Every structure is written in structure tokens, then in C-alpha cells.
Amino acid sequence: MFTPALPAALPTARPTALPTPHDESITAWALAARGGDADAVEKFVRALHRDVSRYVTYLGADPQSADDLTQDTFLRALGSLHRFEGRSSARSWLLSIARRAVSDSIRYAAARPRLYDTDDWQSAAERAQPRGLPGFDDGIALAELLAALPDDRREAFVLTQLLGLPYAEAARVSGCPVGTVRSRVARARRSLIESLYETEAPRPAAGATAVTVTAA
Question: What is the C-alpha to C-alpha distance for residues 48 and 28, in angstroms, rounded to an integer?
């Protein structure tokens, strides 16, 4: 069985000047990589590396292990390419693998004693968070707002609104019906908007007292 090797250097993010490859192209690269095309392997990894990295971080992975989980995801995927037949997009197939990698990591971490303290995952997500998202001021960290969401709503929002997966593909990754994904995204949107308004609401100055004005 042929197992493609990872490229020697992996990008931490796609250059913003380059267009995002279409899912059809990425899936074609995955199928070509399955046949031993080394150039297709590199294109496949580079096209999805940023998505996988952001996804595992937002799922709650320890920020110090996010890079390892990303690497593990691609190693698992490249070792399983012989079973990939292109029935779903390579992007959703890979994110499903990433989801299992995070679950395995969390189970493993829960089974062993914690030996050191680390920053919370929101800090790592904030450092990787793109700026200028519509509807959010630059001064407000989206990661902090997402952190307050239930896990299932956060995942649905990240898959569809940040990574751009169609609802059907997000449902396949999450293992739930499409309608459930739509409901989770809608609820996440409402919660985020409410949190945003609460954050932006003016607060009374310290020591200020309320004044009631009555009509003469």
C-alpha cells in the first residue's frame, strides 16, 4: 500500500493574495495523491492545512498540541487515502478525520494526570483569528465570543461560517442531520449577536447616579 509522505515544510496559513482552491480541485488532488502523485500530495496538504489547524483549535484542543493534532490529522489521512473514493469532498473527509483526532486526544489527556499548566485554547484561537470579519469590530475577539457557545453550536458555526463548508458537508463531518446544523448555526448567530451587543453596550461611569426626569 502506498502511503504518501507529508511535504517537508507545511504552511501555517494560506497567503491571502491567493484564491482559495475549489473543493473540486482539492478532491481531485486527493484522488491523484492516492495514486502516488507527490505534487498532488503537497497541493492537497497546503490547500487544507489552515482549515484543519483552525478547526482543531476551535474544537478545544490544547493550544500547545494543536500543531501536533494538525500533523496527526494529515498523517492519518494520507495513510487512509487508498480508501478515499471521492464520494464526499476531500475537505469534509479530512475534517472528519481531524474531529476524530481531537476526540482521541481529549480521551487520552483525560486518562493521564496533568503535568503542567497551559494557556486556555481561546488565547490560541484569538492569535490565529482573522481580523475584519463582517459584523464584528476589530477590537472584539471572535474567539472569546465563540468560547461561550455550547460545543455543538460552536462547531457548526466554525464549519459553515469560518471554514465555508456547505451545510450538507458540515452535517457529514458532525454526524448529524442537515436541519440540526442549520438550527445550531442559527442559535449560534443569535447568541453571538446578543453577546456583541452586551459587549458594546455603554456602561455608566463609576459613582454615577441615576436621574429620573418627570414631565412638568
Answer: 13
Instruction: Name every residue whose Cβ is closer than 8 Å to that of residue 26 and which is 6 or more positions away in sequence.
Output: 44, 47, 48, 89, 90, 91
Distance CA 43, CA 56 (A): 20
pTM greater than 0.70 (yes/no)? no
Residue 213 has pLDDT above 50, yes or no: no
The pLDDT of residue 102: 87
Nearest of 54, 59, 58, 65 to residue 11 by alpha carbon: 54
C-alpha radius of gyration, the chain, whole number: 21
Torsion of CA 77, 178, 151, 199, to 10 degrees: 120
72 CB-contact burial (10 Å; exposed 0-12 / middle 13-18 / buried 19+): buried
CA 31/CA 90 separation, integer angstroms: 9
Question: Could you read off the pLDDT of 29-84 as tens digits, one per residue?
Answer: 999 999 899 999 999 999 999 999 989 988 865 667 788 899 999 999 999 999 99
- Percent of the chain past pLDDT 90, that is, above it, reads 43
Burial class (CB in 10 A: 0-12, 13-18, 19+), 114: exposed
Using alpha carbons, list the distances in angstroms from residue 81 to 37, 102, 186. 12, 20, 34
| Residues, the chain | 216
